[in-house]
């Protein structure tokens, strides 16, 4: 999911049935994706492009660590 969001795909959602630590991570990730979708709806195209570049850069940097 994080890789898809980093690529700009904000339509992803995690649907998990178990009740463990993974679900505790999935809920905030789903909320983040939804918040990003809503935030991007209200911005101009150049603002959206800049924000997506920042998100992708963040995830690219995490891979290098």
Architecture overview:
With 65 residues, the protein is mostly helical. Helices cover 71% and strands 0% of the residues. It has three helices and no strands. The protein is elongated, with a radius of gyration of 13 Å. The model has no long low-confidence stretch (mean pLDDT 77).
Task: Estimate the global geometry from the Cα principal axes.
Answer: elongated
**What is the straight-line distance between the termini?**
19 Å
Order of helices and strands: HHH
**Biggest sheet layout:** none
Our estimate of the beta-strand percent is: under 5%
Q: Helix and strand layout, with pairings?
A:
Layout: H1 2-6, H2 21-41, H3 45-64
Nutshell version of this structure?
The protein is mostly helical and 65 residues long. It has helices at residues 2-6, 21-41, 45-64.
Keyword list:
mainly alpha; 65 residues; 0% strand; 3 helices
């Amino acid at each position: 999911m994080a890789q898809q969001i980093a690529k700009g795909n904000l339509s992803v959602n995690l649907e998990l049935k178990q009740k463990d630590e993974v679900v505790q991570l999935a809920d905030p990730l789903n909320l983040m994706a939804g918040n990003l979708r809503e935030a991007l709806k209200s911005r101009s195209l150049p603002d959206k492009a800049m924000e997506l570049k920042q998100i992708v850069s963040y995830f690219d940097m995490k891979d290098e660590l």
